[in-house]
Design a protein that fits this description.
five-stranded antiparallel beta sheet; 2% helix; 43% strand; 25 strands; mainly beta; six-stranded antiparallel beta sheet; single chain
Length: 356
């Protein structure tokens, strides 16, 4: 993997001046999903701020549109429907991260002020369309979400947060996200890495050590374990290193290869051009999907014994290794070859019994 630092010509930059709108500072948060606007946080009242406001700033006109705001060190009326947190005094904001696909959703972390029986911080989903909030808490007993910036997967369907248990062990915790605001916990692994971004190849993440931000890792959470490899080291003499931003220029074939960097599924038995069949499903049809992933569109059901030809490289996602195949009627799609314990497809010339 090569790493390139890109210099952007000044002619390609847009000047956004917001001083005329009267706030002490303007902090860009994130792009809208269509790239036409930037979410900004504006503050007023000195330091620490007493007024916090959020705006979407149109890139063509450089004009802000007010979204929502609050006065610090007060309770929020928007939380009144949640009795447990309705009396929490909000002192400040730790971070806001906008969903890269469903741009009307963000995850927001508040710093809690002096409130009886309150934790030091509070994490919520924020719907920017109607300014409603949904509290997020870990369903794992003894684990609590802590104030490290959460991260969205670039598909917009997964949220990664940092949690901590009573022994102060840190965890990388993953949630599936639906556009209606539903979160379902899918995995959690002990690790002292801070996840910064989704790489854009399967479930691979970019992370760095919390105590030593000079080393960057590629990693993945699989069945409660964190797998990683270092890929970038800055000299420690650089001092403070920001997380930056990342853009993957790999081809589709390279992305497929990267997606299986930490493949823990059973060894592959299907290669390009090989004929195979659906097997070991106990009579249950296997799903053919439009793309690799359990959330992708189902385009066909393949009964046990359905034959196919492998037409592409494997892709690893959601705990499965997916194979690009073509059926006898020329329908093409992706099917799961194996999980960490079972095969679902086999080469046509073998008829072995699965050994989970």
């Amino acid at each position: 993997m090569s790493l390139n630092f890109i210099e952007i010509p000044s002619a390609n930059l847009t000047n956004i001046s917001l001083d005329e709108y009267g706030y002490d500072s303007w902090k860009p948060i994130d792009w809208s999903s269509d790239g036409s606007q930037i979410l900004y946080q504006a503050t007023a009242g000195g330091f620490p701020s007493t007024e916090i406001r959020f705006f979407d700033v149109n890139l063509e006109t450089a004009t802000p549109s007010f979204l929502w705001g609050f006065t610090t060190n007060q309770v929020l009326s928007e939380l009144a429907t949640y009795p447990v947190i309705s009396n929490y005094v909000i002192a400040d904001i730790f971070t806001v991260e906008r969903n890269p696909v469903y741009g009307h959703w963000s995850v927001i972390q508040f710093q809690i002020g002096e409130s009886e029986n309150a934790p030091p911080d509070l994490t919520l989903l924020w719907n920017l369309q109607n300014n409603s909030f949904i509290p997020i808490s870990s369903p794992i007993q003894g684990q609590n979400i802590i104030a490290f910036p959460p991260t969205w997967h670039n598909n917009g369907k997964e949220l990664i947060v940092m949690t901590m248990d009573s022994t102060r062990q840190l965890y990388i915790t993953l949630w599936d996200f639906s556009e209606d605001g539903t979160l379902i916990l899918t995995d959690s692994a002990p690790s002292d890495r801070q996840v910064l971004f989704s790489l854009g190849a399967g479930d691979i993440l970019i992370a760095r050590n919390i105590d030593d931000p000079s080393t960057y890792y590629l990693g993945e959470v699989i069945n409660g374990q964190w797998f990683e490899t270092p890929f970038l080291q800055f000299p420690t003499s650089f001092g403070n290193i920001s997380s930056g931003d990342w853009y993957l220029t790999a081809s589709e074939a390279e992305r497929a290869m990267l997606s299986c960097l930490f493949d823990q599924t059973l060894a592959s038995r299907l290669t390009l051009g090989v004929s195979g069949q659906v097997a070991f499903t106990d009579g249950t049809a296997s799903r053919l999907r439009q793309a690799p992933g359990t959330d992708q569109l189902e385009i066909a059901l393949m009964p046990e014994g359905t034959e196919f030809t492998v037409i592409g490289d494997p892709y690893c996602k959601d705990g499965f290794r997916w194979i690009n195949i073509q059926l006898s009627d020329n329908i093409t799609g992706w099917a799961a070859e194996a999980s960490t314990t079972s095969y679902f497809l086999e080469p046509l010339e073998t008829n072995e019994t699965s050994t989970p």
